[in-house]
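ok trying again, last paste got cut off:
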Amino acid sequence: VQGWHGDSARTFGVGQVSDGTAQLSEATRVAMWDGIAAARVAKHIGDIGHAITQSAKNSNRDFSIVKDFTGHGIGREMHEDPDVPNFGKPGRGIRIPDGLCIAIEPIISVGSPKLIEMADGWTVKTANGANAAHWEHTIAITKRGVWVLTAQDGGEEELAKRGVPFAPLD
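nice, full thing came through this time. structure:
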């Protein structure tokens, strides 16, 4: 829109999906929101990845964070600095500045996180043939709070569940 980019992804089950597959998708969605909730001005990029990893671990399933892909800065270009890994250590990585826009996009697989790139140079699949899920939102982080630019309600409902200030731009 007017030269600005947004990035978003959702995983949808097609047809009858197993309970395990539905749980994988839901765990990935929750991990994304937990990562979003960790994104605050003056915190660090590593805080986001740590929150995503902890969320996946808390799902009590054999889920792994796919480390081959990361979230990213976004603005006039689709992929900008900084990279936003879905794993990390609290207090590590760049300090989040006021006004930073990033895409947070965990990909979680069942069992091994190893991927295989197909001959078309675009398609990837899990090396073990198991399912994976991907959820993504673009967010703006300000001193007032977080605005989820690609959520219909700006993320207000999910942010409220986590006690995070919702801060749409005026």
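cool. The first strand starts at residue 63 and ends at 65. The radius of gyration is 16 Å.
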